[in-house]
């Protein structure tokens, strides 16, 4: 196809994919043509053939998940690199890793791919970039690519062309309801026109299933995170959706971008004015969808002063202005977005009552990132989401509402048509041991996330007469009377729970957290570790997961008579064997 750069991405929630697309756009500026590829959809054995293309280059944006694992779409590519011995001699490459420093296996996938390509004889044209989602991954990426392109140009003897290929021009026309045939109008579908009315499997992030909502329940009982209407705190809710999935599907569902609740009465049509071929094989509806959403939100923002949650980075803001043909309306739109997102508290925005009819849309679209999916627990015939509804005041005095949790919180079961949530299911690495007889220790303060599903699974096997191993739960919250969620279901669980250890951090004089209980129960925990036990930790990565890890290392030190380093290595060994799993976030 006349392209010389292949850009592979390993991405779960879209950041890596977006970075790959941006690199493809950059390439045009240097007279090169890139193709963005999902490794799942290509054959890695073809990689060495790229060497035959003049000035060929492989760029990779690889995210890390779980315990240093690749993303689902890069799993096979990872295995191919790990096991394979296909030489990549002469192939030029550079890697940008996406990760988060609060995880123990920081950017493992990016590091692995970078190292492995070198081992297989490929030539690194630019140093490995490490993006840290805990601080500012956008800045990390921009800094990396600012160094990458000069290095690539130097290697290929190229100069930057004057053409700015990173942006596209679109026309943008507003229609009133009735002007266009409704059958031709996207109303928020991600990929296929009317896919929400006419549901067709297979379901995935771009074609989610609209699951009917059966229950929406407040789990907190008072406290400053109650959902009482007069309270501005964060209510905790549990939404159950049911009757939608076949039991043989894998177990971790996600909630993707939701369709707009009500079809808009104002319709925008965007047309690409550019004759250049697209750098990415995105189907047109995807673009329209983004444009539609953006246009719709801009319209609402500028006139109704609704809220938007996206933040525009300073680097992007500059490029937006640099290429904007109509500076004023664009500047106004950006200011509006910034003010509403609380990013720039000094700016005040007034639309002056005018309609921004001719905003050059594409200069803004790249900066509106897609919503990230929410994850939840799965149960054979229903999906449960347990979430704190996110709501807080920004420094500029605006109220920011978490998109997905606030959307969910308003969904009441029943109704005609019934309230539905768009979902899809993907495989999780965080799984119970294959043998139900093996003991498990679950440590999950806060929402206790997937453990409800784990306990239900153990109870199911017990009822079926199987020899279920010890099932131990460590749960922590603030106060028994307020946020001891699922406390009322204990009776149901006792049939399978061997031990329930509760840490209430604000009930007594002394703050008690799960790691304290773990330290107290060192004898019984060590027995579990010795007896093929599996440990699962779920929740806050920054503090809890580290403290729990340290508490377990101390137990190993004391009980097995090891030095600190030996105990750390022992716990690492458990992790490698899949006997210590963490599903943690920050
Ligand atoms: C559940 C979860 C697990 C993660 N595990 C790791 C990890 O082990 N190491 C790491 O460096 N980053 C980890 N991250 C951070 C992601 O790699 C990072 O947010 C990245 O930007 C996601 O890219 P994507 O949007 O392309 O999927 C994790 C993130 C989540 C949500």
In short:
Helix content is 30%, strand content 21%.
Integer tally of domains: 4
* Second rung of CATH, namely the architecture of the largest domain: 3-Layer(aba) Sandwich
CATH 4th-level superfamily of the largest domain: Flavodoxin domain
Helix proportion range: 25-40%
The radius of gyration computed from the alpha-carbon positions, rounded to a whole number of angstroms, is 26 Å
| Proportion of strand residues | 15-25%
Please tally the helical runs, counting DSSP H or I stretches of 4 or more residues: 15
> Which cofactor or ligand species appear?
flavin mononucleotide
Unreliable parts? 162-166, 226-264, 276-330, 336-370
Distance between the termini: 42 Å
Q: Main beta sheet: strand number and arrangement?
A: 7 strands, mixed
Q: Kindly state the mean pLDDT as a whole number? A: 74
Tertiary shape: globular
What is the β-strand count? 23
CATH topology of the largest domain: Rossmann fold
Chart the SSEs and their pairings.
Elements (H helix, E strand, L loop, with lengths): L4 E6 L4 H15 L4 E4 L19 E9 L3 E2 L4 H9 L8 E8 L8 H12 L3 E2 L4 E4 L4 H20 L13 E7 L32 E10 L17 E7 L9 E4 L10 E7 L11 H21 L9 H10 L3 H14 L33 E2 L1 E3 L2 E7 L2 E3 L5 E3 L1 H7 L10 E7 L13 E4 L7 H13 L7 E7 L2 H4 L6 H4 L5 E6 L9 H7 L1 H9 L3 E7 H20 L3 H13 L3 E6 L1
Parallel strand pairs: 1-2, 1-3, 3-5, 5-6, 5-7, 19-20, 19-22, 20-21, 22-23
Antiparallel strand pairs: 3-4, 8-12, 9-10, 9-18, 10-15, 11-13, 11-18, 14-15, 16-17
Helix pairs in contact: 12-14, 13-14, 14-15
The structure holds flavin mononucleotide (FMN).
């Amino acid at each position: 196809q006349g392209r010389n750069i292949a850009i592979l991405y390993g991405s779960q929630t879209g950041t890596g994919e977006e970075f790959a697309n941006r690199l493809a756009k950059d390439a045009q500026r240097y007279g090169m043509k890139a193709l963005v590829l999902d490794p799942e959809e290509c054959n890695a054995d073809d990689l060495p053939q790229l060497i035959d293309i003049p000035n060929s280059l492989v760029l990779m944006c690889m995210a890390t998940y779980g315990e240093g694992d690749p993303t689902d779409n890069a799993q096979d590519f990872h295995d191919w690199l790990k096991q394979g011995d296909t030489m990549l001699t002469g192939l030029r490459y550079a890697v940008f890793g996406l990760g988060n420093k609060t995880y123990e296996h920081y950017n493992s996938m990016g590091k692995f791919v970078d190292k492995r390509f070198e081992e297989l004889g490929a030539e690194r044209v630019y140093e490995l970039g490490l993006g840290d989602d805990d601080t500012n991954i956008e800045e990390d990426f921009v800094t990396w690519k600012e160094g990458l392109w000069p290095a690539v140009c130097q290697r290929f003897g190229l100069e930057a062309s004057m053409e700015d290929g990173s942006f596209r021009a679109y026309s943008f026309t507003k229609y009133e309801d009735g002007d266009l045939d409704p059958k031709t109008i996207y109303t928020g579908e991600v990929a296929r026109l009317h896919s929400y009315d006419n549901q067709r499997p297979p379901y995935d992030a771009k074609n989610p299933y609209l699951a009917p909502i059966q229950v929406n329940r407040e789990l907190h009982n008072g406290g400053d995170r109650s959902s009482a209407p007069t309270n501005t705190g964060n209510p905790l809710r549990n939404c159950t959706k049911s009757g939608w999935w076949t039991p043989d599907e894998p177990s971790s569902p996600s909630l993707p971008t939701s369709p707009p609740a009500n079809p808009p009465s104002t319709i925008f049509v965007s047309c690409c004015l550019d004759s250049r071929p697209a750098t990415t094989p995105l189907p047109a509806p995807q673009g329209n969808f983004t444009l539609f959403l953006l246009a719709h939100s801009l319209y609402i923002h500028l006139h109704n002063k609704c809220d938007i949650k996206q933040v525009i980075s300073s680097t992007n803001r500059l490029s937006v202005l640099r290429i904007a043909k109509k500076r004023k309306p664009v500047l106004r739109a950006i200011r509006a977005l910034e003010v509403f997102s609380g990013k720039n508290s000094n700016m005040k925005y007034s639309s002056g009552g005018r309609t921004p009819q001719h905003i050059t849309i594409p200069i803004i679209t790249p900066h509106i990132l897609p919503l990230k999916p929410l994850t939840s627990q799965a149960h054979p015939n229903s999906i449960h989401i347990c979430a704190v509804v996110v709501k807080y005041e920004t420094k500029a005095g605006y109220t920011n509402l978490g998109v997905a949790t606030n959307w969910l919180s308003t969904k009441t079961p029943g109704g005609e048509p019934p309230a539905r949530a768009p979902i899809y299911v993907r495989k999780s690495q965080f799984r119970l041991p294959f043998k139900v007889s093996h003991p498990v220790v679950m440590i999950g303060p806060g929402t206790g996330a997937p453990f409800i599903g784990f306990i239900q699974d153990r109870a199911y096997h017990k009822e079926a007469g199987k020899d279920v191993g010890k099932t131990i739960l460590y749960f922590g919250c603030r106060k028994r009377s307020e946020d001891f969620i699922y406390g009322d279901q204990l009776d149901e669980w006792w049939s399978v729970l061997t031990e329930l250890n509760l840490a209430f951090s604000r009930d007594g004089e002394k703050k008690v957290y799960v790691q304290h209980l773990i330290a107290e129960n060192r004898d019984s925990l060590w027995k579990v570790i010795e007896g093929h036990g599996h440990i699962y930790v779920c929740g806050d990565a920054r503090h809890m997961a580290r403290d729990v890890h340290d508490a377990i290392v101390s137990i190993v030190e004391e009980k097995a008579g090891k030095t600190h380093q030996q105990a750390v290595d022992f716990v690492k060994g458990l992790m490698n064997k899949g006997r210590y799993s963490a599903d943690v976030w920050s």
